[in-house]
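Same chain as my last thread, 119 residues:
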Amino acid sequence: QVQLVESGGGLVQAGGSLRLSCSASGNIFSTNVMGWYRQAPGKQRELVATITTSHTTKYANFVKGRFTISRDNAKNTVYLQMNSLEPEDTAIYYCNLGQADRSGPQAYWGQGTQVTVSS
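reply #2:
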């Protein structure tokens, strides 16, 4: 099993910045993908950004260069630096870790952290 604990959410004014962190523990394989997803009220959960253990990144189009994902493999921790925040970024942000075992692909989720951007 894998446990994910997020931190760093909060309330910020439009144009401000926040940094989210997610620490993973448990049975973590040397090859995995960690990422951030978000879910706004009344909307489906959507991808924000992912990063592999080799630091290959992928971003949603709406990030527009405002967010940066990074990770520290030694600490099994992933970060999301969010700049130029907009009210539309208001959502619960979830950390995700994906890895494959003998049963196939496995996905683990954190409990989520609230990000609220005021106009």
